[in-house]
Amino acid sequence: MILDTLENSPEKVVIQIVGSCRDVAIAVQTRPDLFEKKCKGIYLNAGTATEKKEQEYNVSLDPVSYKIMFSLPCPLYWMPCFQSLPISNTVSKENETYYSFMQKDVLSYLRKGMKQYFSYALSREESNQWLAYLKKDVNEELLEQQGRKLREMWSTAGIFHAAGKTVDVNGKIWDIEKCKKETVFNFVPISAVCDDFGRVTWKRTEKSNQYIFVKTEDRQTYAKAMTNAIKEILSVLP
User: Fold this and answer.
1) pLDDT tens series, the chain, 238 aa
2) Domains located in the chain, CATH noted
């Protein structure tokens, strides 16, 4: 599927990886020329930014395939889930994509269709009659229950960036090339290698086809801005 998509797409393709890297690793080893020609970039949502013996979950699924992502013939946008493991509050979190918010901070602002969509998904509704569910009246009690739950997030910035967007400190979404405001995330070039265990050694460099996620030093600002950006997108959907 990956190779067919790259082969048949009239424009370059972006790949977002969440979980195991195995399928992409097999594809890139099968047709590295196709990735060089047709893949605009791979966003790798996995790993830790600091070398540790403990493997991050996504890396543990297939460390060797994860290693292959650091020798791609196309751009790599690395988005470490955590700065290091075990999690520590004493070190900088600038390369860590993790953040969280209370679900009510988004759910409360949605229109009927989207409220029903998330009610259906988050409540793990067993019926497969999803279209009929969307047409029902909103279950406000269920929505309130879900709103009190914490939602953990990782890959948001990569989705915005792949679409050519960025987010300022107030949570407003901008075209990357047009934004004149202070933003809450960026990608900077690095030189990185990964061993068979999934440990990455990296350093910043001036020019590379490898990039690492960097966010504002104020973690609360980042979480609030990204939450507002998600709310901005979802609140306009019917």
Assistant:
1) 999 999 999 999 999 999 999 999 999 999 999 999 999 999 999 999 998 778 999 999 999 999 999 999 999 999 999 999 887 775 679 999 999 999 999 999 999 999 999 999 988 888 888 888 888 899 889 999 999 999 999 999 999 999 999 999 999 999 999 998 899 999 999 999 999 999 999 999 999 999 999 999 788 899 999 999 999 999 999 8
2) 2-100+153-170+184-217 (3.90.245.10), 104-148 (no CATH)
Full-model pTM: 0.93
3-state DSSP percent of the chain in helix, strand and coil, to 5:
35, 25, 40
Nearest one of 186, 182, 238 to 212, comparing CA atoms: 186
Instruction: List the one residue out of 217, 229, 93, 223 whose CA is nearest residue 167.
Output: 229
> Helix or strand or coil: residue 167?
strand
